[in-house]
From TrEMBL, chains A, B:
Name the record gives this protein: D-2-hydroxyglutarate dehydrogenase, mitochondrial
Family annotation (Pfam families): FAD-oxidase_C, FAD_binding_4
Source organism superkingdom: Eukaryota
FAD-binding PCMH-type domain sequence ranges: 62-243
Keyword field: FAD, Flavoprotein, Oxidoreductase
């Protein structure tokens, strides 16, 4: 077991060392509150013991001290709970699959945990429009499986799909491996049912289950990516794309990052509308996979960069011809050291296993400092070099992989043991560097607790005030997920 | 000339007959104000005479009485203007190409007109990411032309592309003919520069020119589709898709609307990722084109519905094979009365001419009552039947065409002369019918002045209050585009 309690506390202190917020003057949960909640959701759905799994995030980086987890199963129950919390000024943290990486879905102090996993009753799909309407508590993979039986798919896919819930995906604007093709969730969320923590516990339908609706301010988009700060998403209307009938994967070796950019440019040209993923792993990622997981690259040229490219289309023969033509072009023009086209599902699955095991493999080095940044492509890999230069041999490995097609780099620095020195070298250096180079300090993971103190970096001065004013409109008592994105 | 002044006034009275709002206690423009504006934008860019083109919309449905049009050329100038208007409580209406259909871009009373067409200096494009950054005053077609020289395109296309400005497109969340493929503007707008009408005339960058940015509330989406109620968009970061190298059009005749739905379902299956448009025109549309424009359908079977389908792809041979296979399937299964595949650009252009001339052709009947609604497909064409039954021979024609692939119907009722009787038959009947059948009273045209009184129909009770509270955050004096979407 890598994380014991002491270790856990140390790591938490590290990551919030700049400013641990004080507990705000919220109410303190009483037996009367618990009784009220039991009336609303039933005694079996109020949990006041053995709460560790809900108080902690799955990385064991953050731990709150909530005394109570509630499991509502309808918007009406959520409404009654939030109205009560509003009236009694009890702080609340909405929790979906609790698969986040920034401490957003666990309490900081004693917030009531509103776990949404029982909110999974309503499901309807219209195959003529591709519009899914469902409760927020469905597991992403379950929705995807259901849609595939009708020839459709969910417009997002990510590592945590087996346990994350769609409501959490939406409230964090989750990204993942096919954003390049299907767009971010703003492209696909048509409407949301949201419960507000106001005096009425208002249940509000924002947007609609229609592809086009210009009949008012498009307020549902405010809840996409606002990490549960403004309301609790209890249902969604989602535009689902047709599922591809042909999926092809290929791995391509490239020696320079500039070369990777050239391959991306030509992938867009040759593969056009069928390009669905463009992932990068650097040599350090591959070394880590070999050393820690005994997984070997399918490429034999030991390239500095391995690009995992996927196409999704509706006609296998056409797609294969396009990919073949693209790979031949790369070889003829000496743009790649070597390339492997997956011959079947097993080979394809293995390529994806390399990519998807990368996050796990680095944890086996000891301790990991994780970054999830967006950068313009001309600076994408420079960051890795800057960190290597700054940290030298004080760190074990500097590993970069990520969704290159989206400009999203997952930079990871590993050490054998947690180290204040390395922490001080990295924070706020990496964030400052990213902002100075026109990037974002959070591409897809969000702000949560982890990046709270950096969230305003590089932004227009009044953004914070506007966000606080907006929060006041939807959450007048400020009880939703305090101490996080909007402070 | 179809519209004389008398006529114009009558039609305006019709369309806002339910509740003409009173002028609010805003300031009245003085010579001192004009002097201030001249200092900011230069004397040549303040216009106080011959303002008809700016006070009226292009359909001649609405006319305001502004005394002053300003032509700023930078965010800083817009800022100085809005700060002054805030301080003096002068109402302002932002105006882009003034091509809207709901009276949103013209003043209702004496609002200062902030015309944004000179805001077209900054333009930059990153071909590695496909991200365009530009001022809000560029003409849509000009941006599209520029991007095409680099192998990219604008993610939207609409009839007014030669005169509408991108800022107006964004603030109205314009739809158009390829939304099916490239998504609505929420899918493609990554960031916005907005000037707020607050005490500072704050210039704020919301979002960023990055494909993924989860570093705060995604506030830029609030301005997409809010019709200039919350701030003035002066610049945008836009994700541009690669331009297709192969575009194919086909017209297909179908006898029943249920048959059209079946064709759409199979188009998604056979054409998958290359399907870029799916438009419908009913028999009345074709009759109108023949009688008023002497344009004849390319289909010889005189079908009840003509479907115009377009594909956009990266490999002509593959696309042609897919379309051929699809058309053969339709014929073999007797799903179409006949079909024509455009053999060349001229034939394709003619098919689109039919579709794009439809809005003009109906105006030649005399007077037109226009509706732009979203409906679930199972009710899409029922509306036309309901209107025919209700109006009988009191109307000349009931014409339906639209973006069927998006569930967006353009229903048009024509009469020889404007008629109170017909007006009373249609309003609010059509809106009520649409709401009762799960649709939206505005799919893409917006609310503006035209639908102000109906905007809350079918919505959650507190939506209006929330919108007003949001407006208060961004526009504390309520000076931006009053008497329209948010009242």
């Amino acid at each position: 077991m890598r994380f014991n309690t002491l270790y856990f506390q140390a790591s938490r202190r590290f990551l919030t060392s700049l400013a641990v917020p004080k507990r705000l003057p919220f109410g303190v949960l009483t037996g009367k509150d618990v009784g009220f909640f039991e009336n609303v959701v039933g005694k079996a759905n109020v949990r006041t013991q053995e709460l560790d799994d809900f108080n902690k995030d799955w990385m064991n980086w953050y731990k709150g001290q909530s005394k109570c987890v509630l499991f509502p199963s309808s918007s009406e129950e959520v409404s009654a709970i939030l109205k009560h919390c509003h009236d009694n000024k009890l702080a609340v943290v909405p929790q979906s699959g609790n698969t986040g990486l920034v401490g957003g879905s666990v309490p900081v102090y004693d917030e009531v945990i509103l776990n949404l996993r029982r909110l999974n009753k309503n499901y309807s799909f219209d195959s003529s429009s591709g519009i899914l309407q469902c409760d927020a508590g469905f597991i992403l993979e379950e929705l995807d499986d259901r849609l595939r039986t009708e020839g459709f798919m969910m417009p997002l896919d990510l590592g945590a799909k087996g346990s994350c819930l769609i409501g959490g995906n939406i409230s964090t604007c989750a990204g993942g491996i096919r954003l390049l093709r299907y767009g971010n969730l703003h492209a696909n969320i048509l409407g949301l049912r949201v419960v507000l923590p106001d005096a009425k516990g208002s249940v509000v339908d924002f947007g609609s289950p229609l592809q086009k609706d210009n009949s008012g301010v498009h307020m549902h988009h405010m809840f996409v990516g606002s990490e549960g700060q403004l309301g609790v998403i209890t249902g969604a209307s989602i535009l689902s794309p047709p599922a591809p009938t042909s999926v092809i994967s290929a791995m391509i070796g490239v020696q320079s990052f500039a070369g990777c950019c050239a391959v991306l440019r030509d992938a867009r040209r040759f593969l056009g509308e069928i390009l669905s993923s463009f992932e990068v792993m650097d040599a350090a990622t591959m070394q880590c996979l070999e050393e820690n997981e005994q997984l070997h690259n399918v490429l034999t040229s030991s390239p500095n960069f391995s690009l995992l490219i996927e196409t999704s289309g509706s006609e296998a023969e056409h797609d294969e011809a396009k990919v073949q033509c693209f790979l031949e072009y790369l070889m003829e023009n000496e743009m790649a050291t070597d390339g492997v086209l997956a011959a079947n599902k097993q080979e394809s699955a293995f390529m994806w296993k390399l990519r998807e095991t990368a996050p796990l493999s680095i944890t086996k080095d000891g301790y990991v400092y994780k970054f999830d940044v967006s950068l313009p492509l001309n600076h994408f890999y420079e960051l890795s070099d800057a960190v290597k230069e700054r940290c030298g041999d004080k760190v074990h490995r500097v590993v970069t992989y990520g969704h290159m097609g989206d400009g999203n780099s997952h930079l990871n620095i590993t050490t054998k043991e947690p180290s204040f020195e390395v922490e001080n070298l990295l924070y706020p250096f990496v964030f400052d560097w990213v902002v100075a180079h026109g990037g974002s300090i959070s591409a897809e993971h969000g702000i949560g607790q982890m990046k709270r103190d950096y969230a305003s970096a590089g932004k227009s001065e009044c953004i914070g005030d506007l966000a606080r004013s907006m929060k006041k409109v939807f959450d007048p008592q400020g009880i939703l997920s305090p101490y996080k994105m909007i402070m």
